[in-house]
Amino acid sequence: MGIPRKGSRTIMVEGQNYLWRLRGRRRFLGNAYPHPTLSVQIVGASPGRVLQCSLKEKQFDGHEADMDCGEVCQAAVTPKDVAKVILHARAAGWDPKVKGAPFKLAGPLDLKDYTVEV
Q1: What does pTM read for this prediction?
Q2: Neighbours of 76 (CB within 10 A)
Q3: String of DSSP letters for 2-70
């Protein structure tokens, strides 16, 4: 199943257009925050496998965040982070033009405010 266009953004990486969407951002659920999930697919008439990865937030001093923090979080997933994830996934064997089950990217991959979970 593909990514819906509504609520998604586009990015060009190495001459190819991709559609990406971030889900599960910073909603407080009991004593924890869910980890956001990044989904990416190639833009085209017949998109293939969707790339999915779970992100874990870091504190601004470089350590992983305590998910029960009482402060407003300033973390963001930027297009630069998405491009880095796409390049890492391509190197790990993701072919966005081939149909199939979602490609689950495992870390370690360090982004500005997040890490890709294993």
Answers
A1: 0.78
A2: 12
A3: ---STT-EEEEETTEEEEEEEE--S--BTTB-PPPEEEEEE-SSS--PPEEEEEEEB-TTSSBPPTT--
Residue 29 lies in a domain: yes
Asked if residue 18 lies in contact with residue 5, where contact means CB atoms within 8 angstroms, the answer is no
For residue 28, tell me if it sits in a domain. Answer: yes
Domain-located, residue 3: no
Q: Which domain holds residue 106?
A: 9-116
pLDDT in tens, 37-85: 889 999 987 778 999 988 887 755 444 444 444 444 556 788 999 999 9
Q: Strand, coil or helix: what is 111?
A: coil
Closest among 33, 39, 35 to 7, alpha carbons compared: 39
Structural domain count, the chain: 1
- Spatial distance between the Cα atoms of 67 and 28, rounded to a whole number of angstroms: 9
**85 assigned to some structural domain:** yes
